[in-house]
């Protein structure tokens, strides 16, 4: 059997961690078994459609390198196929038209609630002759669910699951607007597309017996199911579209690497001994359904940060430089106006957790420091430190070959001359050059900043001190 899985998002919003986990598990399972993986957009319910979500889905998957062998298929383009099957089902009395109005259904519902019965369609139209047309009367098509017996399936994560048919409704498979519904389309698609394994969120467990009944009615093969448990936050609350759930591309913007995010997501519910680090190849080689956990997985952003830091150092320098260059561009940093990305990578990659942090630190190379924005600036830029800055300015002006070694020894020389320790010199210098209280080693920064800017900024700081002190 050739394993075939699918990711079937509805374009009703952006992709989040939960969706990606479903996609990743389905993709890895296919890859692990040398099978194929398809992408299908379930877009029949246009009332729930959110603009740009298809683009967001595709871009998110691409960013994470989750590629598909077939698709994207769009359900909205397959309406003829669905209608063909529905018409056949009506002919074979596997489905029927229901003309009940909203009011009638509502009344029926209230009656059932009042007598303490489970709310279900009362079957009024089950035995109408579907070939007598009721002029212009709108109708839905309902699936004739079996009255008795059970639906049983063996979930790969949860074991045997049983539903009783008398708990299941006669499901609407086509709405009054003529559009078939999710539970029906999904069955036809999985059949037509040869899907062997359905890996999806546990919120679909209740749909499964309904889908299996339709599958049996139309004579399609029953796929193997694996329903993955939900993801919760630290307090055990389910993450949802509105709550605690960031758009996957937001992780990209925040400077996480796809390698780190995938590694993080694969471990949200799947394990392989105590192993924490999984490259894409490891995942493809090791992934299985057996090790998916039944219990909810807990989001832990600190773990993602830890993984991201790990991959910042672990991934090849060439790859990281390309990625960083791209990230700078997206953040409107013109790398031609500052140090080489290669140098930036060298000093920053093992000091930062994310590319965003690297970008924030690097911003010192692309802007003139604004001392007026620094808290208690006169602690660092005052008449005492002005003496130090003047000495440094003179010394740096005289340097012919701007090298790290010469810069370091110049700073050292001045600290000896003024009988001050290094930090007393470094602090005002750091402020003058970067406008920040914290930075990586200042000699590196000075070297990368270049002589011209360094002289200019020290000069600016000296002028700032003079001006401030006149006002006083
Ligand atoms: N379109 C469904 C959803 O986004 C998924 C359907 C399925 O996996 O069967 O939840
Ligand atoms: Zn009816």
Please give a structural write-up:
The mean pLDDT is 93. The relative contact order is 0.09. A 3-stranded parallel beta sheet has the order 1-2-3, with helices on one face. It folds into 3 domains: 1-234, Rossmann fold (3-Layer(aba) Sandwich); 315-365; 371-468, Arc Repressor Mutant, subunit A. It is elongated. Helix 1 crosses helix 9 and helix 16 (422-434) packs across helix 18 (451-471). The chain is mainly alpha-helical. It is built from 18 helices and 12 strands. Bound molecules: glutamic acid and zinc ion.
Describe this structure in a few short sentences.
By secondary structure, the protein is mainly alpha-helical.
Summary tags:
472 residues; mainly alpha; Rossmann fold; Arc Repressor Mutant, subunit A; 3 domains; 3-stranded parallel β-sheet; 3-stranded antiparallel β-sheet; 12 strands; 45% helix; elongated; binds glutamic acid; binds zinc ion
Secondary structure: elements and pairs:
Layout: E1 4-7, H1 17-32, E2 36-41, H2 53-63, E3 70-74, H3 79-91, E4 95-98, H4 102-114, E5 140-143, E6 150-155, E7 159-164, E8 172-174, H5 182-192, E9 197-201, H6 207-218, E10 224-228, E11 231-232, H7 248-253, H8 258-266, H9 280-286, E12 297-298, H10 301-314, H11 317-330, H12 341-348, H13 355-362, H14 383-397, H15 404-417, H16 422-434, H17 442-449, H18 451-471
Parallel strand pairs: 1-2, 2-3, 9-10, 11-12
Antiparallel strand pairs: 4-5, 5-8, 6-7
Bound molecules: glutamic acid (GLU) and zinc ion.
């Amino acid at each position: 059997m050739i394993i075939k899985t699918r990711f079937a998002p509805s374009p009703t919003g952006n992709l989040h961690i939960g969706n990606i986990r479903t996609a990743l598990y389905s993709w890895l399972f296919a890859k692990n078994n040398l099978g194929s993986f398809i992408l299908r957009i379930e877009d029949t319910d246009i009332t729930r459609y959110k603009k740009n979500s298809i683009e967001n889905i595709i871009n998110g998957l691409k960013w994470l390198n989750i590629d598909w062998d077939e698709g994207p298929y769009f359900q909205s383009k397959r309406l003829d196929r669905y209608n063909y099957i529905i018409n056949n089902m009506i002919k074979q009395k596997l489905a029927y038209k229901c003309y009940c109005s909203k009011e009638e259904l509502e009344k029926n519902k209230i009656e059932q609630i009042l007598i303490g019965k489970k709310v279900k369609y009362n079957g009024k139209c089950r035995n109408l002759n579907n070939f007598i047309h009721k002029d212009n009367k709108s109708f839905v098509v309902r699936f004739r669910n079996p009255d008795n017996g059970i639906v049983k399936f063996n979930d790969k994560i949860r074991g045997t699951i049983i539903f009783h048919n008398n708990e299941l409704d006669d499901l609407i498979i086509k709405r009054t607007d003529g559009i078939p519904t999710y539970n029906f389309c999904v069955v036809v698609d999985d059949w037509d597309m040869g899907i062997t394994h359905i890996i999806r969120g546990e919120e679909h467990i209740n749909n499964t017996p309904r889908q299996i009944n339709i599958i049996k009615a139309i004579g399609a093969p029953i796929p193997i199911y694996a329903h993955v448990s939900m993801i919760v936050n630290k307090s055990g609350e389910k993450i949802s579209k509105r709550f605690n759930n960031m758009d996957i591309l937001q992780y990209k913007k925040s400077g996480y690497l796809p390698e780190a995010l995938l590694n993080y997501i694969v471990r949200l519910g799947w394990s392989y001994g105590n192993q924490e680090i999984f490259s894409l190849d490891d995942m493809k080689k090791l992934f299985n359904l057996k090790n998916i956990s039944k219990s909810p997985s807990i989001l832990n952003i600190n773990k993602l940060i830890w993984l991201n830091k790990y991959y910042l150092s672990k991934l090849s320098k060439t790859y990281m430089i390309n990625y960083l260059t791209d990230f700078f561009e997206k953040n409107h940093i013109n790398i031609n106006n500052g140090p080489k990305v290669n140098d930036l990578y060298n000093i920053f990659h093992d000091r930062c957790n994310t590319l965003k942090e690297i970008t924030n630190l690097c911003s010192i190379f692309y802007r003139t420091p604004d001392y007026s924005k620094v808290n208690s600036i006169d602690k660092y830029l005052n008449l005492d430190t002005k003496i130090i800055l003047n000495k440094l300015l003179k010394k740096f002006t005289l340097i012919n070959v701007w090298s790290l070694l010469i810069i370091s020894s110049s700073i050292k020389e001045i600290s000896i001359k003024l009988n001050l320790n290094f930090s007393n010199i470094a602090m005002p210098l750091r402020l003058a050059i970067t406008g920040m209280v914290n930075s990586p080693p200042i000699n590196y920064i000075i070297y990368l900043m270049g002589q011209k800017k360094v002289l200019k900024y020290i000069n600016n700081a000296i002028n700032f001190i003079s001006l401030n002190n006149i006002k006083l």
